[in-house]
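Notes from the 1:1 (GR / supervisor)

We went over the backlog. Supervisor wanted to see one worked example end to end before approving the batch request, so GR pasted a single chain during the call. The sequence is below; no edits were made to it. Supervisor asked that the structure be written out right there so they could see what the output format looks like.
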Amino acid sequence: MRAMSKVNRPFSIEFMGCNYSNRRGTGRHRIEKCLLRSATKAENNQYADYMLNLVDVETGRARQCWQLLLMYFNNQKITIDEPRADK
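Structure output shown during the call:
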């Protein structure tokens, strides 16, 4: 995502939305063309390390999502492997 944003090449993502303040899911969201952006001072919160700050290229709208709720990047499913117990 960083490399693509650096050369201004949009990517698509799909994620589950979550409103942390009222503890409710907001459903499945898809952004067809987006780029990473810097957080504004208003968005700089205690959870900044867990958030992705994006701009929807088609609408110009600033968006955010929780990194752990990402499901697809450029139509490829994201999986998290369990840590291995090396002996």
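Supervisor's comment: The mean pLDDT is 90.
Batch request approved.
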